[in-house]
Amino acid sequence: MHSDSKAVVSNAERVLKIAKENPILRDGFSDPSLFEKYEDEIAGILQDSFSPILTHNEIKTASIPLQDVVFNASERFKTILKDAGEDFELEIKNLPEDHNYIIACSIILKVCYGYDLSFKRPFFYEIPDKKGVMRYYKILYNADFIEITPNENAIKITPEDYDQLIDGFEDLELWKAKFPPNSYDFKGFVISNVFDVTDDQSISNIKSSLLGKGKRKDEAFMEDFHEIFRSLLGIKDINVGFSIYNKDDDSFVRVYGTGMTSYLLNELEASYCKDALCEWSYNRLLKEKKYFTISNVKNMYEDSDCDEPHIKVLYEQGIQSAIFAPIANDEGLMGILEIVSEQPRVLNSVNVNKLVDVMPFIVSAVERSKAEEENLVEAIIQKECTSIHSSVHWKFVQEARNYIKKQYQTGESPTFKKIAFDNVYPLFGQIDVKGSSNARNEATQKDLSLQLSLAEKILNKTLQKKSLPILEQIKFQVNEYCNDLRSNFKVDSEHAISVFLKDEVKPVFELIAQTEPDIKEDIEDYFSKIDEDLNVIYFYRKHYDDTVKLINTNMSSLLDEKQLEAQEMYPHFFERFKTDGVEHNMYIGESITKQDSFNTIYLYNLRLWQLQVMCEMENSYYQNQHEYPISLDVASMVLVFNQPLSIRFRMDEKRFDVDGTYNARYEVVKKRVDKAFIKGTEERITEKGKLTIVYSQKEDEDEYKRYISFLQSKNVLDKDMEVLELEDLQGVTGLKALRVSILYHNENDDKNFYTYNDLMETIKS
Which residue from 86, 87, 39 is spatially nearest to 62, judged by alpha carbons? Predict the structure, then answer.
């Protein structure tokens, strides 16, 4: 190469002189320690690429290919490493060790074999500055000074090898088999031009952090989020908080998540916006949807005219500067981004402008989170309130898709098609609290009697000190109610006595407490026993209600657990209801399973399973009866209906029901049969300690006798089976029942099963 420029010629002669005097630099070396020995000579050779004039501005290095060994660097790069601290080790952060090897192989494929895999991706350094704030640097390589040659260990790559490699990126052993270690010689060096891309990378990191689901549960999420904003703003001492805007009542609400907080709310769970902000800041955030900053909280707080609530709450937390940025879309405010620092002036109206580029990602994330939360709320409502069983869910999905399809095709809102299943066999069962009405009435009488008795004692004590006609009249009424409770308790007695105690006794006692110090303690004791919500003593009734609730919860949990096993035998519809006990409906048939697989053997299997589970539920209850607040008895019943029927989903009630007039007879029997009497007697068909099976057809009787015989052989049922006739119900005649005692098992006793009477004797003893 020839040049007419004296400067170029002079510089070339200088480089050639260095090369002549140091032949090792031309021939090459592999010992990294020689970099230090020839530091000045290498700098001289690379002077054209590393301009002394720009050395304090450019971030540039010369290094060994694909390694973090730097042997020549600009002064700015050296300063960056010095500020990072003595313990800092330079490494490319987004280059896994396996990928490093494969990148080298892909370069060999291009240089030596002409295969261009285009495996190019940006690489980054993460280096903290002297403040401890993480900064991001992008690396651009100039590989013009590299030469690659195969040595004796190299294996020639064939087209077949190439086909294997492009389909096996993650198979490191394959790459090492085709490119054995130390089989190619890399000569030369790369020059890296490094650029500070902290702002761009911080924005990218914020975007990546907000994309993932379930981040609120991740303990590291908020700390990483703090670090990202610290890098973006270049400030170490900052923290990030959020508060959600509730449009319904114009309030800010705390965001629930690990490590999340709100500096605007501090320790509050929620606050009305106008209680948390002054009028100006309220309008700024909610109406104008613009950010605002406080650069010196202390100065504003100490201003004698300052009464802004947000300034006060920041000052109380030791915060000295803050940014409040609205998270808003076209529909309005969704929440507030809160960035705070314990240092004054570090957050201000200048650096807040850096948020402009990140707010769209935060808005999108909040929109998505809001939609996910709404979907979750709907899912919980559906699960807890209007559950659609998994066995029939496919039908709803099918119709919903048809609904959407018609909506797009016509542009109008179509009608949601009726969801129905034909020719399905019903099964119904219940485990019910026996004598629940009497038990609750007894608990009510005890509560009211106790309260009236306490009231009477206070009235007697007061009348001894002061004789007032009004007190005599109230005492007379108390006695009348006590007599009624003992001899003539009616449905409306509870309400009448409760109103009397609240509206007449309570005001008088409050007055006595103010005028008679000696009786005040008795009155305070009286009021301490009264439930705040009901305004009456709720002691015995609470025991009853808690027992029924616990029975329902435990029996439902057991039934749900067993139901999972039954679904594995053959899919069917299942639902249960909590009343004074637990009822369940099941429907099984071809139309529900959506498969041509139904056989009546699955119906018979489910019927036998139902009997077994009813017995298990009874066993579970009586064996754990000591854990309940009061002792109640339960009775179990199964209703058999041998004809298939149709069910449909009632949109207004959000539940399945039988379809058609004929099938309605089944629902009538379900609602009335457990209260029916044995024909010609005053004895209820359901009885504690016994399983009752109600049916109408002879073939049903024969079928269930076989099941009973089987369960008797397993010591699940006793040998005392009865065949009974039921009294006629309204519109329903000819019902019969099989009734048989349940055997209760005790694994901790030599006798491993008991009748109900045996069990009661054991409990009493």
Answer: 39
- CA angle, residues 97, 102, 106, in degrees to nearest 5: 150
Helix 600-623 to helix 698-713 angle (10° resolution) is: 50
Which two three-digit tokens encode residue 311? 């300034």
Pairing of strands 59-63, 190-196: antiparallel
Burial of 390 (0-12, 13-18, 19+ CB in 10 A): exposed
Predicted model pTM: 0.57
Contact assessment for residue 322 and residue 347, using Cβ atoms and an 8 Å cutoff: yes
| Chain Cα centroid distance, residue 212 | 14
pLDDT in tens, 457-511: 988 888 888 888 888 898 899 898 888 888 888 777 888 888 888 888 888 888 8
3-class secondary structure, 86: coil
Residue 55 — φ and ψ, nearest 5°? -65, -25
- Report the C-alpha gap between 475 and 484 in whole angstroms: 14
pLDDT digits (tens, 9 = 90+) for 685-706: 999 999 999 999 999 999 999 9
Distance (Å, rounded) from C-alpha 61 to C-alpha 90?
A: 12
Measured between alpha carbons, how far is residue 463 from residues 459, 468, 473, 508, 515 in Å? 6, 7, 11, 13, 13
For residue range 581-609, list pLDDT tens digits in order: 899 999 999 888 877 788 889 999 999 99
Percent of the chain, pLDDT > 70? 89
CB distance 295 to 340 below 8 Å: no
Return the ∠ at Cα 674 (arms to 673 and 676), rounded to 5°: 60
